[in-house]
Amino acid sequence: MSLDVSWLGGPAPQRGVGVVAPFDFALDRELWRWVPDDVSLRLTRTPFVPVEVSLDLARLVSEHETLDEAVRALAASEPEVVAYACASGSFVGGVAGERAMCEAMTRAGDIASVTTSGALLEALAELGACRIALVTPYTESVTRALEEYLGEAGVAVTGRAFLGLTRHIWKVPYRSVVDMARQAVVGAADALFISCTNLPTYDAIPQLEAELRMPVISANQVTMWSALRRIGVYAVGPYQALLMDAPDTPDAPGPLDPPRVADTTVDHRQEEGQEGLT
Question: Which of 137, 157, 115, 172 is nearest to 54 (CA)?
């Protein structure tokens, strides 16, 4: 006996978002958590290079030739927008370098393009935040490059914490992210930014916003938020301040209290080259 399934008609149409990620990116599932059901992510990765997480690696994975090839490959699946999901790779060249990356990607695929670091500045403008606390898994030199990028864009860093990692960033547990955030928020910050698309943050964001009483944004969150808004779609993220305007989300927490104020700014530093957490 055969079963007639002709009435099914096929899968519902899917809108496409292309994503270019570094070769070591391991958080595909986290990106999907911000994406509504009628949108499909189409990911590709940059070629492997035998370099640990550093400014050198950031430059290698963001070369225009590498991005051109990745975007042309993605264009075959006809995405409506392409996102370069790498924070360090998109801030290492400063504001002008980030803009040049977007232009190169758009030329390569004739597709609207965004980067993580460009999305960060968009998100800060959306939140009206010009003073931020900063959390990264990077070494001091990479963290400093991010601060320089932000300073060039007129954003002040009031406090920071970083881990000094050069590999296996995707293995950092939420508790370490939360601990760093608590140490970074020591000045009069408008928001907290957690950098690196290879650092898990989705479930930590609501907890930190409730505890710190300020907007908390992360590299993966702003990347998906920016890419989706380019095609008129809302990112999915309950209890996340950046996404509060999205329709059909659970009731959000009450208005945020003023940010905590302290008299000093300090760094949380670990030795560069650290390969694991204690």
Answer: 137
In which residue are the tokens 């965004």 written? 114
Q: Are 125 and 85 in contact (CB under 8 A)?
A: no
Please give the DSSP secondary-structure letter assigned to residue 84.
Answer: E
Distance, in Å, from the CA atom of 77 to the CA atom of 114, rounded to the nearest integer, reads 18
| Structural contact between residues 166 and 54, judged by C-beta atoms closer than 8 angstroms | yes
- Among all chains, which residue has been given the structure tokens 């991005």? 67
Which segments of 148-254 are extended strands (E)? 156-162, 191-194, 216-218
Whether 157 contacts 132, CB under 8 Å? yes
The residue type found at 240 is Q
Amino acid at 12: A
Residue count (the chain): 278
The number of beta carbons lying within 10 Å of the beta carbon of residue 190 is 19
Rg of the chain, C-alpha, whole Å: 19
Residue 169 is which amino acid? Answer: I
Q: Which residues of 250-268 are buried (b: 16+ CB within 10 A; e: fewer)?
A: eebeeebeebeeeeebeeb
Q: pLDDT by residue (tens digit) across 129-174?
A: 999 999 999 999 999 999 999 999 999 999 999 999 999 999 999 9
